[in-house]
Design goal:
There is one protein chain. The chain is globular, with a radius of gyration of 22 Å. It starts with a strand and ends in a 6-residue tail after the last strand. It is built from 4 helices and 25 strands. By secondary structure, the protein is mostly beta strands. Strands 8, 9, 10, 11, 12, 13, 14 and 15 form an 8-stranded antiparallel β-sheet that branches. Strands 6-5-4-1-7 form a 5-stranded antiparallel β-sheet, with no helix packed on it. Helix 1 (about 70-80) packs antiparallel against helix 2 (about 80-95) and helix 2 (about 80-95) packs antiparallel against helix 3. The protein folds into 3 domains: about 1-65, Roll (SH3 type barrels), CATH 2.30.30.40; about 70-110, no CATH class; about 125-345, no CATH class.
Length: about 350
């Protein structure tokens, strides 16, 4: 068993092919099947045997031991070559994107080498549903963009395989190790049959032209996945079946509580969040004399809150159900002067 030591390693369909089948992430374990010059044919070892991924990679980027972020930082310090120093920082960032110094040092290294640091377009969001991670869209500097519908190009799927992903667990982030999302795919949005976390399903009844994007497998239902570090804000239980919106961190002004269907309110400037344990989720915001309001039907203990990179916006991903079937999510954005909700409808069943 060998491990990938590149921040991203191209997987090719043949020993001489330029085309890229997928991107393999750092520390992915592989088995070497054969060699042909500078390239070797490998099989990924973090896949079930019934869903193998094989291809050709540059053998120079494989090693017998997994790499740590500390190893990468040390190798960078020992190197006198500017390009090598930059490459080691890229590896450190790929292994542990939660350390803010990795990105800061990499940005400085790139600029010292005469390059230009390119800020990511935003933060990709995805959620675990039914044992697989469903892609939702992109949280940009301005707003959330619903992109769960496949754009019909292989480029979108290939780009998603190259992303760094982190899993939100309570109040912290867990970087995803290896390449569990090496082969994202598009599948049916309506009457999907025979699908799993690795292959698309089919539709034999009423079908839609649009398809949704699946990244790969997951274990815990309702887990949020992000492509850049965010500040998780777990909800706080304050009593039996009562959950308080996490933006209570710095309330200003009066607070009130109403027992029963509506359970808690808070004030932030003139913002009020109302959590209904098994019913309505209300948002009320008044800024500069302009009133914003929205109401969602959802079990709010399943919502996931976080603070957007840059600290200018609170975001919640709220599950939506029809009877017992998950039908999608609503992405709620709460800023100091705006409130916005964007529905992401993922699936359908029936006539």
């Amino acid at each position: 068993m060998l491990f990938v030591h590149a921040s991203l390693l191209a997987l090719h369909p043949g020993p001489d092919a330029d085309a890229v089948s997928a991107w393999i992430r750092i520390n992915t374990p592989v088995e070497v099947l054969e060699e042909d010059g500078e390239r070797v044919r490998v099989r990924l070892l973090d896949r079930p045997p019934e869903h193998p991924v094989e291809g050709w990679v540059a053998g120079a980027f494989l090693d017998t031991e997994a790499l740590t972020a500390a190893d990468a930082r040390l190798a960078r310090e020992k190197s006198g070559d500017p390009d090598e120093r930059q490459a080691w920082l890229e590896r450190a960032l790929a292994i542990d994107p939660t350390d803010p110094w990795h990105e800061r040092l990499l940005k400085r290294e790139i600029e010292q080498n005469g390059g230009t640091w390119v800020e990511p377009a935003g933060t990709e969001l995805a959620m675990c549903a039914g044992g697989r991670v469903e892609y939702l869209g992109l949280l940009t500097e301005d707003r959330f963009e619903d992109r769960h519908v496949w754009d019909g190009t292989r480029r979108q799927l290939l780009d998603l395989s190259a992303r760094t992903w982190l899993r939100v667990e309570g109040d912290h982030l867990v970087p995803i190790q290896g390449s569990p999302f090496v082969t994202p795919f598009a599948t049916e949005t309506w009457n999907e049959e025979g699908a799993n976390a690795y292959t698309p399903g089919t539709c034999d009844a009423i079908c839609e032209v649009e398809k949704k994007v699946i990244l790969g497998p997951c274990e815990t239902e309702g887990t949020l996945y992000v492509s850049r570090p965010v500040e998780p804000m777990p909800a706080t239980p304050v009593g039996d079946d009562v959950v308080v919106a996490p933006v209570m961190a710095a309330p200003v002004g009066a607070q009130s509580r109403q027992l029963g269907h509506f359970v808690e309110t808070m004030a932030w400037d003139r913002v009020r969040i109302v959590w209904g344990v098994e019913g309505t989720f209300g948002l009320n915001l008044t800024v500069g004399g302009v009133h914003y309001a929205d109401s969602l039907q959802a079990p709010q203990h399943e919502a996931v809150w976080f603070e957007r990179p840059g600290g200018d916006r609170y975001v919640a991903v709220v599950p939506q159900y029809f009877e017992d079937r998950l039908t999608g999510w609503v992405v709620v954005e709460l800023g100091r002067a705006t409130m916005r909700s964007t529905p992401v409808t993922l699936a359908g069943w029936g006539c």
